[in-house]
Write a structure and sequence with these properties.
Blueprint lengths: L6 E2 L2 E2 L39 H19 L29 E2 H4 L33 E3 L30 E6 L1 H9 L5 H7 L18 E9 L11 E8 L10 E16 L8 E7 L55 H17 L8 E9 L12 E2 L23 H5 L21
Parallel strand pairs: 4-7
Antiparallel strand pairs: 1-2, 3-5, 5-6, 6-8, 7-8, 8-9, 9-10, 10-11
Keywords: Signal
Protein name: Cytochrome c family protein
Length: 438
């Protein structure tokens, strides 16, 4: 059944969440540590009495459960390896790395993409690398920055520019979908402009349903930095990637490809559920990305911040021209604008303790939840975004330059993605991916 929410700040808000009395939500006062599971949650577990704070905690716990399940060690077919546990083997392939990248879905000239278990060809320039030197599980990273004339997963929202790490190198990005979302795109021919024109309707991706066990549509966005220099690979979840400089992204960029070890620094999860048709938006970061404005920098070194730089402008994109081939670009000075809440910090500590308990010193202890955005009133007749809470949410690696709390300007997952449309103008169900169709 569904619950209705109480009056908050003199406004009556309608809250939708599945009540699972047999599986009470983990609370701050729980005596035991959270259970680590390879099962992706399909809905939050909530138990009355409800409050905005208690439900935020429930959604944040949902985010952590999702993060654990997605980063569970994977079998060769991408299913979770239930004979292993998260963090047991250093940097082994995880579940989500078997998902489809957007470059594999939206192909030149609107060509139909290969099936779920098939891969596309790599860029021609990458074929010069000896296949024997490429480790199993190597991924492909092809984007470095969103630009005014190209919409892809390469960088910052609102085309504000690439992000440069403390080694002076470009952060790399990718967007992926799970099989449910991929199949919806494939079966409805949404991978091409022609197919979208023939579909000619608002898109409504499949939602997760806790009653039937149906895993709905999930999309991910990840950000990576090259290991070495100031970055010790043992502090990151790493993999190998064929890193491609894409000439279509920026005028003057020459195609190039290199095999590099990269470390995960940012991770978005968007999950459509029956109770949350505006999707649940979870965002995680590496703990050493950046300090918070107004707070004392607690670490000696950061991925995107230099305490010794007294004249660095904060949260400003690099000057053009942008060229990822440059051996060194002035690093971006990043600070977190909206602090992580005390409750989220406590939940992070709880999950870190659980990770440490199963694998002492687990690399996943270096990742933290920033927050979760969710619709407080999914069926609100005047607000198609569902009255999101919190209203603003930003990842320092993914929305670096639009952090803050100014409506229409600062990062808000639902407010931004509510504007997403197909190539022929229909509602795209909170994803800009479909605009990549050719």
């Amino acid at each position: 059944m569904y619950i209705k929410y109480f009056s908050y700040s003199a406004l009556f808000l309608c809250m939708s969440a599945t009540v699972q009395a047999e599986s009470p939500a983990v609370t701050k006062a729980a005596a035991s540590l959270p259970t680590l599971s390879p099962v992706i949650p399909l809905e939050i577990a909530a138990k009355p009495p409800f409050s905005l704070e208690s439900l935020q905690h429930d959604f944040d716990d949902f985010s952590w459960q999702s993060f654990i399940a997605l980063n569970w060690p994977a079998n060769a077919d991408g299913t979770p390896n239930t004979m292993s546990t998260i963090g047991q083997k250093t940097n082994q392939p995880v579940v989500w790395l078997h998902w489809k990248e957007s470059r594999e879905i939206f192909l030149p000239d609107g060509v139909k993409p290969p099936g779920w278990d098939q891969s596309n060809n790599v860029p021609d320039v990458c074929k010069s690398i000896d296949p024997k030197s490429i480790p199993q599980g190597t991924i492909y990273l092809t984007q470095v920055g969103k630009t005014p004339n190209v919409l892809d997963e390469s960088g910052e929202p609102f085309t504000t520019g690439p992000l440069i790490d403390q080694n002076g190198l470009y952060t790399r990005y990718e967007i992926l979908t799970n099989e449910t979302m991929f199949n919806f795109i494939l079966n409805n021919n949404l991978y091409s402009k022609k197919g979208q024109k023939q579909f000619n309707a608002d898109v409504d991706f499949t939602a997760s349903d806790s009653k039937t066990g149906q895993v709905g549509s999930i999309m991910l966005k990840a950000s990576w930095i090259k290991m070495g220099g100031k970055f010790d690979a043992t502090n990151y979840y790493t993999t190998y990637a064929l890193v491609y400089n894409n000439p279509e992204e920026q005028h003057g960029v020459k195609p190039a490809c290199a095999l590099e070890q990269v470390g995960l620094v940012g991770f978005h999860i968007a999950h459509k559920t029956t109770g949350e048709p505006q999707w649940i938006w979870s965002t995680f970061e590496h703990v050493a990305n950046a300090p918070t404005q107004g707070e004392l920098a607690s670490l000696s070194a950061y991925n995107f911040y230099d305490a010794k730089c007294t004249d660095c402008k904060v949260n400003e994109p690099p000057a053009r021209p942008w060229d990822p081939a440059n051996p060194h670009t002035k690093p971006t000075q990043v600070e977190r604008v909206i602090p992580i809440t005390a409750d989220a910090k406590a939940l992070n500590a709880s999950y870190h303790a659980a990770l440490d308990a199963v694998v002492p010193g687990s690399v996943w202890m270096n990742y933290e939840l920033v927050s979760t955005q969710w619709p407080t009133d999914a069926k609100n007749p005047t607000d198609p975004t569902g009255v999101p809470a919190p209203y603003f949410l930003a990842n320092t690696t993914l929305e670096t330059y639009i952090q803050g709390s100014v409506k229409q300007t600062s990062s808000s997952c639902m407010a931004c993605h509510n504007n997403a449309a197909t190539t022929n103008g229909n509602f795209a169900d909170f994803t800009y991916l479909l605009q990549r169709a050719q």
